[in-house]
Amino acid sequence: MAKQQSQPVASGMPGPGGRHGRGGGKIEKARDARATMRRLLVTLRPYRWVLVAVFLLVMASTGLGLLAPYLMGRAIDQFIAAADLAGLQRILLLMLGAYLGAWLAQVGQSVIMARVSQKVMRTLRRDLFEHLQTLSLSFFDRHPHGELMSRLTNDMDAISRVLAQNVTELFSGLLTLVGILVMMFAINFWLALGSMLVFPLMILLVGLVGKQTRRGFREYQMRIGQLNGRLEEMFSGQRVIMAFGQEAAMLDDFDAANEQVRRVGTRAQAYAMLVPPLMGILSNANIAILAGLGGWMTLQGWATVGTIAVFYNYSRKFAAPLRQLGNLYNQVQAALAGAERVFEVIDERPELTDAPDAVALDDVAGEVIFDHVDFGYVDNVPVIQDMSLRAAPGQTIALVGPTGAGKTTMVNLLTRFYDIDGGAVRIDGLDIRQAQKASLRRQLGIVLQDTFLFSESVMENIRYGRLDASDEECIAAAQLANADRFIRRLPQGYDTKLSERGGNLSQGQRQLLAIARAVLADPGILILDEATSSVDTRTEAEIQAALLRLMEGRTSFVIAHRLSTIRDADRILVINEGRIVERGTHEELLAQGGFYHNLYLSQFKGRAV
Q1: What residues form DSSP beta bridges with 573?
Q2: Do both 339 and 380 map to the same domain?
Q3: pLDDT tens, 437-455?
Q4: For the chain, what is the domain count?
Q5: Within a domain: residue 498?
Q6: CA–CA distance, 515 with 523 (Å, rounded to integer)
Q7: Are 425 and 412 in contact (CB under 8 A)?
Q8: What is the pLDDT of residue 81?
Q9: Helix, strand, coil shares of the chain as percentages rounded to 5?
Q10: Does residue 20 form part of some domain?
């Protein structure tokens, strides 16, 4: 594997491939259909008594539906032959009541299952989303965001359809088949036995086609997830695509991914569509057998016309649930494939967990120590090697060096987005692996180069720093961050809703909001990752003034390409290839005439040109 040193920033943007051997690892292969079905049914356990009521309604609708043909046979043999009009009227009223009762029971079971399925899906979606929040950044590095979104949407929709509709259809279909067989054997054993001749063929058909159908739907949903991932990436990078005139190339990429979806989807649907027509053929064959055998038995005096009429109606009813089960089978296969993909994510073990004896990290003084730290995103490919440093409380530490040197990786380790391979990182003497992650991150304020803003109001984006903050506290934080002035010029001021990622603000304005968010969080330790590298000089001065107020009295780590922004740092660490190669103040490093000196001269000359 190629060595990678330019790693994802602390914001969790896509980075290199996942690392091996850190727990979690590669997602397991899909489970078998039975195990997935059992697990899916477990989600219905809290509603077992409601399901009992649904099952009783299914039994009622099925039983009443099967009663009507039997009553019709009675009418033919007893009342029509005897010209008993009063008896015929009674039978017809009973048949009407049976059909009406069956309809009411079907409506009741449908309404109840719709409510149950939506509650189950709400819980399952929440469980999946909650579990995603516990996974480390390396998991998101390995899995495209669009593919994960597909599991939360497309796969969940497939499961929802089965729970809302197909569970009752499955009960109803199976009960109808069993009820018809019981009634047929009770009425005439030999006619019923003849009707059973095609049943083994139906079971064989389902078994042969089922495995291929499920596999096809699983691959189809995987390709849909990949297509969503490509779309999410293209939409996010539309500005770059247009700037470089790569619309045609992106269309080619989309066409290739879309063609994969078409090809796999066609194959999956081809297998799926085999079942219903074959079920229909076998059902019609069953009626043909019944007609021949029933006609012969009637001629022999072993059956009545009413019996044949009952069997004919039951055979037609027998065909309907068979076709229904054939269609249901395809939908269940798609749902099982989706459920497997959802459960795979839920089963992914968090790579970073709190130790059993982890303690809360509150009100830190701000001492930070890296003690002979080693780390690599990929095994045997070190990014940080034997790194040691100490930041005293309230001290400002600047980190400089070329791209990929390991500066942002240090941020990822301090925030414990990843765990170190060797050594220790301590805050106020406590190894951060012994601290509760939530309390650790509450003590850290991060301002990144690429500020992420949500599609909410300006006020809510600032409040993200501390969710229980009042409006007055948010405004005070904005004032300290030099953001209040531009916010009040927005159309609705603090109530102005931002577009996706804050696209209706300038880069500098987004940075000021990020600083206001950090001010509101009031962290003990501050991390500024290239916070002024993408703005003009005037905006940089405004941001720098806000940052100085934010850094006052706090231990601060500043990552910067513009060396002019870190001249007043208490200590500057020069990092190259994962090691600290120089350390000192600005004047001390210039006097050494080494790496920092050359880097400073190159930037100075660049500005002078």
Answers
A1: 399, 583
A2: no
A3: 888 888 888 887 777 888 8
A4: 2
A5: yes
A6: 12
A7: no
A8: 61
A9: 65, 10, 25
A10: no
